[in-house]
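INFO batch 0412 | record 1 of 1 | parsing
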Amino acid sequence: MNWWGKVLGGSFGFMLGGPLGAILGTVLGHRFDKGIEGIKQQIPWHSGDQERVQTAFFTATFSIMGHIAKADGVVSKEEIALAQQLMAQMQLNPEQKQTAIRLFNEGKAADFPLNELLQQFRQECHRRKNLLRMFMEIQIQAAYADGSMDQSERLLLLNISQQLGFSRIEFEHLDSLIRAARQFGGGGQYYQQGQPGHAAPTSAQQL
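INFO prediction complete | emitting tokens
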């Protein structure tokens, strides 16, 4: 079963709270409000809860992809195509794709709360370093979608990686792996643990 349906049910954004919950609530709109109304009791959510982590990953991934795409001033068709490719790898249905697109567009806003969102995302992921690494791989790949990573995108990614706890050396290593994959025809693939060919997560077990 596609677990994104549970993530996008509405109430998870409410229970998540913070900047991630606010952005998800904005894009879900009326369905989000209905989800809040349907909550009968307060559920004791804590950082690290699987469904909460999944929601945070989904929200942060697509909104920050949009933020990076806008970093050089223009969102290219290649950057949009990469986001669509990721949606396909995640096996999103049409409604879920629309939510991802709206998150992407939210990330392009001038007042996008990047630092606050990253701080919460790191807290929600707790010690799941592999998940943070996958997130960084996706964002670096997004920066190369139009053929090259410009200086504004590089500085932005360095800031993102540092806020998520990666050293400069770790960032450069991920960057070199992705550049190598592009050079040898693997530009559409992501990495996991430094090995090419691992696609984006399609199930809860992969998170």
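INFO post-check: Residues 4-38+49-206 form one domain.
INFO record closed
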